[in-house]
């Protein structure tokens, strides 16, 4: 088994007043292994984006531990320690329009981190680095002097990827990186992410609501519902032998580009059951965990 | 065979911008029969939403210009109609559902009144009869406790429920044609599945024709009888849903089908992509607009725009590859394999081949 | 949709030559920066350009007309309430002073008050609004409530009190109380707008991206917040100036303005009002200038706002 790169223990993120908090993330635990892609799926509002943003410290967490490379991310305080951490963990954002500053050129966007971290102070060196990053994402050096609005959605997303790569991170959180893109462009970006992963030995947390793309890119998948991870396991196991009724319902709702099977598809509706205090993650198969009580998990396995 | 309820002929729409004229829709032809669903599928900028807005005459002029064409609905061309005449058609004979349910509902008005308003405007009924019908509609679109919900405001509804309300409003005047512009894109998959089921149920009972605009091929396979694939302001392939999915002829359609991952596809393989970006429609390329991104592009593609070649009685594709002199290009392997997989699964179940090309 | 008649096409044309997708990635249009595009769009707006030309003309006249005129604003020519003529283009007033030169002298005062008030609003409003938008919820709440309370203070009261306290004429001929009075509440609008911009920009994904890269607050302000809020600030400022000029004119009209022999447009209109039947030019010219200036500033401000509106961007 590969080494654990990231350990999430009881991550809790509440928003709003302390009396009536919005429980965006409600005590979740999972690990991410070096070199793998973990897909995090769920419906809007289930807490998947909040999870990603909490891990990278865009939010101060309510409770729990996030251990990256053996160090607790949220306990390190000094600016220097934080910068070290920033270099290793990066993020790709959802909206290719909102994620690039409209007043900056592509080259400035990609080299923004160099200013922050005081890298490549030599002008020529910096230019070369920017060019190599542009090339890595399938753009060329002419693009460096163009403003964000001059690019298409797919090209913008590639600039966002180049920015995330600029500090040579080992771990990247991709927060719905393709959901705002066209079908043919989605494939380009997913292919690019796969190639980069191979070349640079990257580890991904891939957050998405499009289950077919997640299945394709992920080694393991975690399914989130109302702030909890309800099922986590190898991608094939989640798809072919789901246990939690929510996962089953979600899978039954994916439309496939196959008219005949679509005409026969029956959707499995999901009815949420409140679980008692004893609910936790149960291992139902190797590396395959389901959240529930002992009795409920047993019941789900038999249906 | 029933008469078409809608015929669109050579529709061309341009927009005036600072960068010049954008030729958003460049000669679109299609027709729709009563009770049928046509899916218009394409990527952003392909002209699919402009086309559907044009059917409702919702293109602002300026900057929009109806350059040419006819939109014959129920035997009458809509293009020369004045705004006043159109307002009798809109919401009454043709109604529309948009992507974002929140922006199509009035947040300060109870949903019941938003429905009765449409009924009272287009139907000659009393206020109490309108209320009765509105409650029935809410029930019909699957909103529980319709009497109670009738008195609530849009913000008291969830996203999926709001889209149901929008559908109820769209159906209030019993339109003959319903245009749905990405009605499920903003919704979660489980809600999307429910809304699609609802739309199909309604169509069965009311025989409404539906034009469904989407970029999601899965959704197309689910709802459509007929499919029009749009690229760069033109329909490049047109046929029944089975023809488009099981016997696609246009390389762009191959690309679209190939770029979707398959549940069973091997994740070590890269996805088939359509390389490059769509053309700038202020200066559409000479010849076939897709040529530059087409690995099978012919010399003539860069010179002359292809005509619509007929594949079967109902199937057309706009590519020179269908010319008798063109080399015979088989469907790319990855796409062919997937189609075989789908059909194979089917054959195993049925023991016979049900698909006609 | 019938099959078209196929015309004869040479066989060689049906050779596979493949795609040229690299060409589709080229950005054909010439690179235009955001601000260049704003200028181009602004130049397309006829009303805004008219406003800009009018403002330039007023500014130039305000600077040069009093210098090159043969009269001064306080010089009494002995010709009382004389109608406009070749010698006195806008006529003379009841003390025999040339209205033309007094109008441009008044322009200096009106523009000075308007622009100074706008600059003070800008400084206070931007600082207040950015702190309010950047700091946490509690600080934000306190700062905005203070602004709400100040909104309720009537400036009429402020200007009267200040005139009494500072002594009319003691400091800058009544200009200071006027400017202070205008600034007491004037910055609040700017502060609200800057706060709104900051709140929306700081949650934009590009700011989040900069934060994940390790950017500190200073970097965020200089690289992201200021460049993106600049447009809204500029528009607000352009629209603040005419507000200030109008308020000044209004206060002067009530007799709370600058003291004699100096005269702003407001005081001139006020005095002219008494002579509306026998010397209407004394009211008409300053009133016309007030209207024209306010209109021009608003036209420029609206033009700027339209030019900056990203929804129209292609």
UniProtKB/TrEMBL annotation, chain A:
Gene3D superfamilies: P-loop containing nucleotide triphosphate hydrolases. It comes from the Bacteria. Residues 6-251 form the ABC transporter domain. GO terms for biological process: peptide transport; transmembrane transport. Keywords: ATP-binding, Nucleotide-binding, Transport. GO terms for molecular function: ATP binding; ATP hydrolysis activity. Belongs to the ABC transporter superfamily. This is Oligopeptide transport ATP-binding protein. It comes from Viridibacillus arenosi FSL R5-213.
UniProtKB/TrEMBL annotation, chain B:
GO terms for cellular component: plasma membrane. InterPro entries: AAA+_ATPase (IPR003593), ABC_Ni/Peptide_Import (IPR050388), ABC_transporter-like_ATP-bd (IPR003439), ABC_transporter-like_CS (IPR017871), Oligopep_ABC_C (IPR013563), P-loop_NTPase (IPR027417). Signal peptide: none annotated. GO terms for biological process: peptide transport. It is a peripheral membrane protein. CDD domains: ABC_NikE_OppD_transporters. Residues 6-257 form the ABC transporter domain. PROSITE patterns: ABC_TRANSPORTER_1, ABC_TRANSPORTER_2. It comes from the Bacteria. It is found in: Cell membrane. GO terms for molecular function: ATP binding; ATP hydrolysis activity. Its main location: membrane. The keyword Nucleotide-binding applies. Keywords: ATP-binding, Cell membrane, Membrane, Nucleotide-binding, Transport. Belongs to the ABC transporter superfamily. PANTHER family: DIPEPTIDE TRANSPORT ATP-BINDING PROTEIN DPPD, OLIGOPEPTIDE TRANSPORT ATP-BINDING PROTEIN APPD. This is Oligopeptide ABC transporter. It comes from Viridibacillus arenosi FSL R5-213. The lineage of its organism: Bacteria, Bacillati, Bacillota, Bacilli, Bacillales.
UniProtKB/TrEMBL annotation, chain C:
Residues 107-301 form the ABC transmembrane type-1 domain. It is a multi-pass membrane protein. This is Oligopeptide transport system permease. Gene3D superfamilies: MetI-like (1.10.3720.10). One of its GO terms (biological process) is transmembrane transport. Belongs to the binding-protein-dependent transport system permease family. The chain crosses the membrane at residues 47-68, 109-134, 146-168, 174-194, 225-246, 283-304.
